[in-house]
Amino acid sequence: MHAMTTYCQVTGARPVFGRSVSHSHRRSSRRWSPNLQRRRYWVPSLGRTVRLTVSTKGMKIIDRQGIDVVVARMLARGERL
């Protein structure tokens, strides 16, 4: 079994690190993680399904532009599917 990636394969969104600041102004480290989902998409140009780790913003991009366009762009930049 593979470990789930910690970044969106469509947008490239990764966790962001920073500090929580309390009312008394004490600081502690924290992390903001993108809302990642594992989704299967049927890609007609490849003739198969692909499983992607995408953020919810990435899902909206796929809905707007189409899975073929997004997958072609991912393959052009060397992303493994």
Protein described:
- It comes from Actinomyces slackii.
- There is one protein chain.
- 25% of the residues lie in helices and 35% in strands.
- It is an alpha+beta fold.
- It has one domain: Ribosomal Protein L24e, Chain: T, CATH 2.30.170.
- Strand 1 and strand 2 form a beta hairpin.
- Helix 1 packs across helix 2.
Question: What is this entry, summarized?
Answer:
With 81 residues, the chain is α+β, with helices and mostly antiparallel strands. It has helices at 56-65, 67-76, and strands at 16-21, 27-32, 36-43, 48-55. The chain is built from two helices and four strands.
Question: Which sheet architecture does the biggest sheet show?
Answer: 2 strands, antiparallel
Helix proportion range = 10-25%
Q: What would the CATH topology be?
A: Ribosomal Protein L24e, Chain: T
Structural class: alpha+beta
Sketch the topology as an H/E string, one letter per element. EEEEHH
Computed CA radius of gyration, to the nearest angstrom: 16 Å
Mind telling me which CATH architecture this is? Roll
Task: Give the termini distance in whole angstroms.
Answer: 15 Å
Protein name: Large ribosomal subunit protein bL28
Keywords: Ribonucleoprotein, Ribosomal protein
GO molecular function, one term: structural constituent of ribosome
InterPro entries: Ribosomal_bL28 (IPR026569), Ribosomal_bL28/bL31-like_sf (IPR034704), Ribosomal_bL28_bact-type (IPR001383), Ribosomal_bL28_sf (IPR037147)
Task: Furnish the topology, listing elements before pairings.
Elements: E1 16-21, E2 27-32, E3 36-43, E4 48-55, H1 56-65, H2 67-76
Antiparallel strand pairs: 1-2, 3-4
Helix pairs in contact: 1-2
